[in-house]
């Protein structure tokens, strides 16, 4: 997609000259010039009790159009209201754009009084600039919330006020927003999901399910009728009605039948729970999150998408840490996904962006110092055969020279050695790792603990990301390389030798954190394993 502020056919200078030469200053222009003057020097302006934030751009914007109104009585005004409402559909609040007040000012401007027209026009400009900014960059600054944040903001290469004027007097404001919009499948799906859950919340949400007893197939309990109604209100599983009577409170509604069990299993799958049809504490917790809670989770995912879903190129790898899933995406379409194991709350996987540059087959694993002290050292002290049984060699930490394990004082707090696990089926990294060298020492890799992927909660690792099907990802990353084949990969694996394979071109990898997303047409939610949602939501609602 061309950059949003790419060079236009008409230069900003010519536009300013045309406007200044063709307009005769009148009462409206004089009022606009007077009001916009209060912003000069970067001062924020205040009308009534609302503060306008576009202090730098507003004077330049109106100077570039001879202080003529941009929104009053023009097609741009109608487009602005339509685009602001599209912004609300993307998770923003009406208050973010003074929208209710803007409607009032629009009504007042119909009086024709210059001061009313000027007030409406300036507030409209402020709303337009904030909409562009929020959609383009996101409303919240992620770097202010996460010191490890390393995603670069997109760069604006032209003067924004001039570009805004060019579109308003040319293709229109909606055409500018079409350039700004994120053209990503997941983003569009999240917008659709947000509408669905806002509609549910606006219609009263769903009832809380009494959690006085575990609910399971075959029982009869009044809480079962509430469970049935709760699922139906969400509209996520119409089969929840099962064979029961349609009206709530009947004996049929209170019986936990097979149809309801299937609906509960589908709900549990979407919420990262054990899909056994038994409603216990964790399922009750997810069931009894309100529709408003789910609305906010979707708003947060849209905001997080705005932080990172630009300038990705044709393909990228995306790790959803909270959802413990990894995706390979081409042209904004998910083409492949796999279950993953991501960092625990104690050893969080960091959120950052990098590029996968190469793969290493039959890798060795150099045990990080923190894991050595907390995990490995106690095991070695208890089990002298642990090192040889798990194929570890010992080297000095300072110069990496080999050391006889029998000569090490394992009782010391710091034995001064490092463990290196040799290639093989016992290696903690499995048989392949995907490298994007970074300060966090985090990467994607295979694992020798395959049973972990069967767990519903998979925030279990020490920070790196384990993949259930790593060799499928390896094949996708190497697709189109004439020197690569399944036979060659298998030959490398069979050799047992550590082998580095460079990608023809680096592939972006995004380690992200979404507690709500859309996959295969279903909306998925998680319970915020790192407790990050509250801070972002507070900033988004500020």
List keywords for this structure.
alpha+beta, Muramoyl-pentapeptide Carboxypeptidase, domain 1, 542 residues, single chain, 4-stranded antiparallel beta sheet, L,D-transpeptidase catalytic domain-like
Walkthrough of the structure:
The protein is of the alpha+beta class and 542 residues long. It folds into 3 domains: 12-181, no CATH class; 222-289, Muramoyl-pentapeptide Carboxypeptidase, domain 1; 310-540, L,D-transpeptidase catalytic domain-like, CATH 2.40.440. Helices cover 39% and strands 16% of the residues. The strands form 4 sheets. An 8-stranded mixed beta barrel has the order 3-4-5-14-12-11-6-15. A hairpin with a 5-residue loop joins β8 (392-396) and β9 (402-403). α2 (27-37) packs antiparallel against α3 and α14 packs across α19. The chain is globular and about 90 Å long. The two termini are 32 Å apart. 39% of the residues are buried.
């Amino acid at each position: 997609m061309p950059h949003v502020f790419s060079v236009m056919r008409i230069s900003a200078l010519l536009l300013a000259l045309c406007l200044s030469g063709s307009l005769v200053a009148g009462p409206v222009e004089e009022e606009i010039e007077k009001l916009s003057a209060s912003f000069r020097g970067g001062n924020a302006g205040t009308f009534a009790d609302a503060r306008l934030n576009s202090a730098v751009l507003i004077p330049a914007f109106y100077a570039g159009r001879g202080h003529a109104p941009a929104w009053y009585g023009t097609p741009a005004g109608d487009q602005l209201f339509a685009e602001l409402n599209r912004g609300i559909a993307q998770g923003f609040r009406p208050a973010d754009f003074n929208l209710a007040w803007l409607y009032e000012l629009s009504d007042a401007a119909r009086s024709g009084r210059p001061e009313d027209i000027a007030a409406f026009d300036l507030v409209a400009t402020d709303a337009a600039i904030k909409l562009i900014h929020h959609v383009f960059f996101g409303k919240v600054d992620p770097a202010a919330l996460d010191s490890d944040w390393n995603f670069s903001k997109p760069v604006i290469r032209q003067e924004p006020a001039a570009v805004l004027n060019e579109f308003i007097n040319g293709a229109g404001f909606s055409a500018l927003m079409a350039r700004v919009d994120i053209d990503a499948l997941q983003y569009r799906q999240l917008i659709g999901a947000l509408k669905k859950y806002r509609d549910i919340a606006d219609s009263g949400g769903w009832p809380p399910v009494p959690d006085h007893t575990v609910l399971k197939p075959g029982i009869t309990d009044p809480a079962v009728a509430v469970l049935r109604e709760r699922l139906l209100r969400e509209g996520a599983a119409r089969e929840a009605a099962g064979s029961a009577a349609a009206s709530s409170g009947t004996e049929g509604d209170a019986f936990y039948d097979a149809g309801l069990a299937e609906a509960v299993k589908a709900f549990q799958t979407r919420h990262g729970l054990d899909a056994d049809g038994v409603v216990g504490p964790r399922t009750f917790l997810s069931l009894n999150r309100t529709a408003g809670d789910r609305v906010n989770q979707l708003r947060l995912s849209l905001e997080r998408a705005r932080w990172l879903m630009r300038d990705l190129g044709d393909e990228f790898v995306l790790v959803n840490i909270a959802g413990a899933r990894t995706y390979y995406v081409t042209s904004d379409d998910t083409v492949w996904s796999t279950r993953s194991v991501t960092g625990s709350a104690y050893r969080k996987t960091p959120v950052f962006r990098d590029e996968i540059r190469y793969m290493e087959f039959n890798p060795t694993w150099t045990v990080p110092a923190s894991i050595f002290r907390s995990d490995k050292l106690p095991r070695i002290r208890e089990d002298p055969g642990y090192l040889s049984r798990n194929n570890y060699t010992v080297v000095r930490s300072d110069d990496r020279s080999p050391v006889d394990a029998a000569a090490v004082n394992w009782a010391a707090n710091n034995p001064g050695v490092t463990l290196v696990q040799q290639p093989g089926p016992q290696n903690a990294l499995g048989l392949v790792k995907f490298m994007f060298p970074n300060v966090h020492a985090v990467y994607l890799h295979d694992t020798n603990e395959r049973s972990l992927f069967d767990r519903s909660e998979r925030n279990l690792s020490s920070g790196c990301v384990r993949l259930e099907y790593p060799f499928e990802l390896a094949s996708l990353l190497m697709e189109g390389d004439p020197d690569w084949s399944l036979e060659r990969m298998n030959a490398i694996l069979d050799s047992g030798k550590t082998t580095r394979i460079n990608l023809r071109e680096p592939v972006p990898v995004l380690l992200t954190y979404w507690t709500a997303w859309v996959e295969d047409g279903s909306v998925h939610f998680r319970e915020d394993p790192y407790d990050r949602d509250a801070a972002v939501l507070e900033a988004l609602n500020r």
